[in-house]
Amino acid sequence: MNTRTDSSTDFTPVDQDLYEKAFQLLDPDPIPEPAAPAALAAPAAVPLTATLPMRLTGPVEKVLTDALAFLDTHGWTRYSLINTEGARCSIGALRAAAGSRNAAYCDAGNLLLDEARRQHGKKWETIPSWNDCHSGAEVRSVWEAAIRRAHHLNI
Prior knowledge:
The protein is an all-alpha fold. 50% of the residues lie in helices and 0% in strands. It is built from six helices and no strands.
């Protein structure tokens, strides 16, 4: 495409006043340009309208979190699934939180037992055997670490 505008062409020169009037009709209230930028003026604060992407809780993290909340609400116990006051052991809390022995329940139990083995040695074969041999603070520490791992793994 050739865009030369020398005097030998048949183009009519643009009337600047007419040009400005045409754009005035198209945009009757233009934003005035600033007179002179201030040398030390701080930039205007721009409100952040975008929100950060929301991270969804995975099913394993949800079961673990709900089970720990159940223990916080109803109490923790040893040597029985549910005691007479309604407190539960760790496996009882998992069952209450999951609602059924579904995949999230199984994965949460495996993650909890793996974390128990990390903190208290490899000898633990089941959640109940580990639960019954540790204090409430030790059990809670394992729960919290398992929740953090589930969160980190996004499961």
